[in-house]
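Table S2 (text version). Query chain:
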Amino acid sequence: MSSKGIFLCLIAWSGSLLLSAQDKPPVKFGNVTAKDFATTVYPIDSNAQAVVIADIGYTFMEGNNKSSISVITKRYRRVHILNKNAFDAASESIFFYKNMDVEEELDKLKAVTYNLENGKVVETKLDTKNGVFKETINRNRFVKKFTMPNVKEGSIIEYEYTVRSDFFTQLDPWLFQGPYPVLWSEYNLELPEFLGFTFLSRGYKKYDITKKNTRSTTFTIIDSRGTGASERGQFSTNVTDHRWVIKNVPALKEENFTSTLRNHITRIEFQLAETRPPYAYKNFVQSWSKVTTDLLLDESFGEKIARDNGWLDEYTNPLVLGAKSDLEKARRIYYYVRDNFTCTNYSDFYADQSLKNIIKTKKGTVSEINLLLTAMLKHEKILADPVMLSTRSHGQTYELYPLKSQYNYVVVKADIGNTAYFMDATEPRLGFGHLPVRCYNGHARVVNKTADPVYFTPDTLMERSSTSVFMINDEKGNMVGSLNRVPGYFESFSLREKVNEKGKESLETEIKKSFTQEVSIAKLKLDSLNKPEELVWVNYDFDILDPKEDIIYFNPLLASEGYKENPFKSALRFYPVEMPYGFDRTYNLQMEVPEGYVVDELPKSMVVKMNEAEEGMFEYRISQSGTSISFRCRVQLKRAYFDPEEYEMLREFFNLIVTKESEQIVFKKKK
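Corresponding structure-token output:
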């Protein structure tokens, strides 16, 4: 069911902010007075650009005229918009589910913007007939959007609506947290005992109120679908009323190294486990093998690669002609698909086109292109299967709950010899046997009869890069040098993307800007740029053009090497640090002392370990021998994921690195 239920008639906020002492939110739709505009800075967050005064949902079941149960969800929301940077809070998107010709319905939408003008509250109502727009997401999802009218700095907006759904096996999650602080977030659920749901709570905020009460009620169900008179039936059952409230919920702000905030939002989710009498008993907790077996039979998924695809001879025969091994065949097929097909959607699970149409149009979604790749590999008797996963931006999956809705991406697994190769043919410059960073999000499943689990975790990735710099005095006494850099695989991939998009000249301009000194660049060379399975080598010469002063301050970390600022700025962090990979970066410099100068100050060497387990290391070694200076700097982080409790350690580690890497060699002109 689409997530939007909120109990309307319970809210009226007083400026005194005594919510923590109350069990019921004192806000009611339409009850907005001049006093409500008085607060412009809220204690929960003095820098907040908007504050959600209340967000309340209420979901219950009732009998319908289709001989079944409907799910009714109501939602009420009031927001105080404090400045123009929060105007996005005045737009709402309501997501709906559909199946064939049955879809969820929006009902009873009311939305009003309130402004204080000359001491009076002025209302502007949303035109619900012409101001709501529908967009299709895929064959099972659509969204309705609206934007509140006449929004200004200081406006208060509120809206309420009802969503009616005939899909009683699905309940949307309730989000207690979002991009703006919330003074009162509440969700109410009336759950009849014939529906057995599992509750899943996530996030670091605890509930201020949790209550449940069981009572008896009667459901009336009408069957009016036949040609004769309608049949009416009634039955009594127990219903449990659940209530969850969290007060004063801070905004969940985007921090560096966050895969998606969806993983960390305080929320409650629901998974149907079973139906009970008067419905037929059914266990909805399927095994993984049942889920993947069903997918293999689905005409929009596995059936496409299982049917007789003899017509593929026309495309695969020329590709594999003369290939001496299955590995060579797989490479040729992969690069053919990668280089000849355009991805139209990078978040998709099913294939709506036929394989023939995909080949004809040379376009398809990520699932369609990678299912075509699977079919072509299978056609050549290579053991290949689709793999279903959720990308980093889509959120982590619950491994224990085989829900297809958790997954939004398909890649390919090919077993050749004793090696498993994973492929994604939607990235034009991605090498065979590699996946994009977005795929490294933990648990995934091979879509075969045994539903083999696989794990693409960032901690398994290690980006190793090295930079070597040599600097000497030329015959005119000027400092000249050469730089050789070998980035890691994903940095090489990004470099290929950048050069393809902007050209080599743009890269040269970017390199010049990365120096703190004025330099000229010559002989820029990029090796292996068109070899996507290898690392790119960057090489160039440079001349330092800065005029020579009596004192020269020189940072040995040239060309954007090193950390200029700490990537972890916040003093506190309530959710994990999720880097895309671990890394090991080494920088070496050999240089002559500038002609006519002596070393006045040289930074001290140091080696620091981040923790006892040595999961992070910083090495800074510098020495002088006559007129030569040797410098080595290395930063290593052996894992990508850090719990909130480790954040302070990580932040202090990088504080130390930033401070040390800012130190400079001081050269003084000889007297």
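Notes on Table S2: Residues 1-21 have pLDDT under 50 and may be disordered. The longest strand covers residues 231-249.
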